[in-house]
Amino acid sequence: MSTASTGVTIRRAGPGEAGIVAGFIRELAEYERLAHELRAGEAEIDAALFCDNPRVFCDLAFLDDEPVGFALYFYNFSTFLGRHGIWLEDLYVRESLRGRGIGKALLASLARRCVAEGLGRLEWWVLDWNAPAIAAYRAIGAQPMDEWTVQRLTGDALKRLAGVAAGRDGEGEAQ
Fold first, then answer.
1. Rounded to whole angstroms, how far apart are CA atoms 164 and 173?
2. Tens digit of pLDDT for each residue in 26-71?
3. pTM assigned to the model
4. Cys staple from 18: which of 13, 29, 46, 151, with CB 3.0 to 4.6 Å?
5. Which residues contact 6 (CB under 8 A, 6 or more apart)?
6. Annotated active-site positions, please?
7. Nearest one of 121, 106, 107, 114 to 62, comparing CA atoms
8. In CATH, which superfamily holds the domain spanning 2-169?
């Protein structure tokens, strides 16, 4: 799929392109000042995106046949809407190419997917210090969800809770 106004082409990542995706993830982690948290490499990305039953998907943006950005996403579900949606986990465009409509083209491609598949939402997070991205998202009509606070379990806390839950009913489910 090509976007005439930007000259960018968007297409689904294919087998053999995990290295491109992993490279973008590294660049994104550095930009977000989170490189110290990065654990995934090319092998993990390849296994997640190109397995028999993938649960995560990736679109790549190309400019003159050069990969310049990506959108990594998965399907979620809204109990209030009773419909699936797309959760955009990561959106990244190379810093030197920002402001040329590439990120908007990636978002528009996902929006078209949502409309074509009858999905109810396209959602994502943005770091509160990323003013240029926030401004771009407002310009396309995205609304902040300030009343929600993200919660996360990881590492030892996740393992502790799993151990408590498994101890209650023997099946690994919390009561």
1. 9
2. 999 999 999 999 999 999 999 999 999 999 999 999 999 999 999 9
3. 0.86
4. 46
5. 63, 100, 101, 102, 104, 105
6. 137
7. 106
8. Gcn5-related N-acetyltransferase (GNAT) (3.40.630.30)
